[in-house]
């Protein structure tokens, strides 16, 4: 169960990304005063990548000791390595490569999902990633208890690559799942399962634009995850919705 849910409304997508970036950097700095390692999950999508670009441009970037940070992905588009549509590629370009090449972030702290080529199928990529997650999991768990798990949300209410009505929503007992027939291109993907999401300490959902307003309202209103997967995006300590005014336009929660 989520200990707390908070909704923060920003005026527009750019402000939202700036604020999410500042919040992430401050959160990591705070965590580093009490724990040596932090685990952060990155997301694809417009606002997610905009947030990473804002991290890269922030004067607070050097407040974080990146040598203690591990980066993960909650989902990936199953495409060849370096494909411009991979979430990893976009995150590397926006932030990650700069941190690695500056020597701030160890290259082996960047835990990307295996691309097409390294894995033959989404299932194979998912299984390899599950093994990587297990290497960093506390005893008895399948994945780290992520300090911050970032998600974008689609207009249909999907998070990660968990789409309304898809069988992946009901997969339990494993950390990751291969996805076929995604309504958002490309059709083949790899995703965290809800089991993995629900082990995160904090889940932050970033969403901007009027086309997200219905899904935001349904998710905050507690819709069934089969209709609105984002309703199930909850952390054990905090579930934080960072939205812009347009995306918040239909919610009463
Ligand atoms: O692979 C992806 O596309 C994502 O990881 C996906 O879950 C994304 O975060 C949402 O679709 C929101 O994307 P937008 O912010 O671009 O709407």
Automatic annotation (TrEMBL):
Pathway(s): Carbohydrate degradation; pentose phosphate pathway; D-ribulose 5-phosphate from D-glucose 6-phosphate (oxidative stage): step 2/3
Domain named Glucosamine/galactosamine-6-phosphate isomerase: residues: 11-241
Domain of life, per lineage: Bacteria
SUPFAM superfamilies (alphabetical): NagB/RpiA/CoA transferase-like
Recorded GO MF terms: 6-phosphogluconolactonase activity
Catalytic activity: 6-phospho-D-glucono-1,5-lactone + H2O = 6-phospho-D-gluconate + H(+)
Gene3D superfamilies the record matches: 3.40.50.1360
Entry's Gene Ontology BP terms: carbohydrate metabolic process; pentose-phosphate shunt
EC number: 3.1.1.31
UniProt-listed InterPro entries: 6-phosphogluconolactonase_DevB, 6PGL, Glc/Gal-6P_isomerase, NagB/RpiA_transferase-like
Keywords on record: Hydrolase
Annotated NCBIfam families: pgl
Chain's role: Hydrolysis of 6-phosphogluconolactone to 6-phosphogluconate.
Family, similarity comment: Belongs to the glucosamine/galactosamine-6-phosphate isomerase family. 6-phosphogluconolactonase subfamily.
Protein name per its UniProtKB record: 6-phosphogluconolactonase
Organism: Luteimicrobium xylanilyticum
UniProt gene name: pgl
């Amino acid at each position: 169960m989520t200990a707390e849910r908070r909704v923060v409304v920003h005026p527009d997508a750019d402000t939202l990304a700036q604020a999410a970036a500042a919040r992430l950097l401050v959160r990591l700095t705070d965590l580093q005063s009490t724990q040596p390692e932090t685990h952060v999950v990155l997301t694809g999508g417009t606002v997610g990548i905009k947030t990473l670009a804002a991290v890269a441009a922030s004067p607070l970037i050097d407040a974080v000791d990146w040598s203690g940070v591990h980066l993960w992905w909650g989902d990936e588009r199953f495409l060849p390595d370096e494909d411009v549509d991979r979430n990893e590629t976009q995150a590397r370009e926006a932030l990650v490569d700069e941190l690695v090449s500056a020597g701030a972030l160890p290259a082996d702290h960047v835990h990307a999902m295996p691309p097409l080529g390294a894995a033959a199928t989404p299932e194979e990529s998912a299984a390899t990633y599950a093994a990587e997650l297990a290497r960093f999991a506390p005893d008895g768990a399948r994945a780290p208890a992520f300090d911050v798990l970032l998600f974008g949300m689609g207009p249909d209410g999907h998070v990660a690559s968990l789409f309304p009505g898809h069988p992946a929503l009901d997969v339990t007992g494993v950390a990751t799942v291969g996805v076929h027939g995604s309504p958002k291109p490309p059709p083949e993907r790899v995703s965290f399962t809800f089991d993995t999401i629900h082990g995160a300490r904090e889940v932050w959902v970033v969403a901007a634009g009027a086309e997200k307003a219905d899904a935001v309202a349904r998710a905050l209103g507690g819709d069934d995850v089969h209709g609105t997967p984002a309703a199930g995006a909850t952390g054990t300590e905090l579930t934080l919705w960072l939205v812009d005014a347009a995306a918040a336009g239909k919610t009463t929660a």
